[in-house]
Specification:
alpha/beta; binds adenosine-5'-triphosphate; single chain; 4-stranded antiparallel sheet; 27% strand; 7 helices; 6-stranded mixed sheet; nucleotide-binding; 34% helix; 241 residues
């Protein structure tokens, strides 16, 4: 068994008739939180979709937990929370989770566990259609946690959440990683980068840099990661001019 949960080599993806991911390669270590950071439209969702196996790719290889992405055996080993929740609005939170738990053949007891993990106990009986944006994204995250997947792929899970809730979700991510779960979390908020073990910085369909937050700060001589990211962009541009 390798130490990488995900390996991506030379990934190329075309969407809407143009190339949006250009020759991207990286590895995601097991049992850690890896942050996929970059500005809106840089290709984060496309890369995550390629890992989950729902994206047609034009080139390269993506291996997940030792198998090619999209292999049927991976379905129950990966939890994927998309950016736009797709949950039936006319079910309650608990009903929706019971429904997904049945599909995933997750234990019934998982429903109460994941509701508690995302702190939605008070809304368990509320209709999904009546949830606030932040509650809805937590319900979406709860679905991804059903069945205790080995790999969690979370696309901007903290968007629209207040700082307290954001903090508690990051605590949960750390707890899950401590239990051995691999997390790949996308964000365009640089202050979340410092909470990750490893970072993949993307820009314009390419991986600009990889490494731990401290290694990236050190490499760029920057005090914070936002500055480090800007420095890396400037260095790249200078190299091409
Ligand atoms: N369904 C689609 N058809 C055509 N082009 C698409 C489609 N989805 C995304 N794109 C384009 O692919 C590029 C990468 O998009 P992607 O959603 O992967 O970026 P992102 O970094 O996740 O952005 P955000 O942070 O805003 O979600 C963008 O230029 C986007 O316009």
């Amino acid at each position: 068994m390798t130490n990488s949960a995900v390996t991506v080599g030379g990934l190329v993806v075309r969407r809407g008739g143009r190339e949006v991911v250009h020759d991207v390669s990286f590895a995601v270590p097991r049992g850690q939180v890896t942050g996929l950071l970059g500005p809106s439209g840089c290709g984060k969702t496309t890369v995550l979709r390629s890992i989950v196996g729902v994206q047609i790719v034009a080139g390269g290889q993506v291996h997940v937990l030792g198998r090619p992405a999209g292999s049927p055996e991976l379905r129950r080993k990966i939890g994927y929370a998309t950016q736009n929740p797709a949950i039936y609005a006319d079910l309650t939170v608990a009903e929706a989770l019971r429904y997904f738990a049945a599909i995933l053949r997750a234990p019934k007891s998982d429903v109460d566990r994941v509701i508690a993990e995302v702190d939605l106990g008070a809304e368990a009986g509320s209709l999904v259609g009546n949830l606030s944006g932040g509650e809805l994204s937590r319900a979406n995250l709860a679905i991804a946690l059903l069945g205790t997947p080995e790999l969690l792929v979370l696309d901007e899970p903290t968007v629209g959440l207040d700082p307290v809730l954001r903090d508690s979700l990051w605590e949960l991510f750390r707890t899950l990683a401590a239990r051995g779960t691999t997390l790949l979390v996308s964000s365009h908020v640089m202050d979340e980068a410092a909470r990750c073990d490893q970072l993949l910085l993307m820009r314009e369909g390419r991986v600009l840099a990889t490494g731990s937050p401290s290694a990236l700060r050190e490499r760029t001589g920057s005090a914070d990661l936002e500055q480090a990211f800007l420095r890396l962009i400037r260095d790249k541009e200078a190299a091409h001019s």
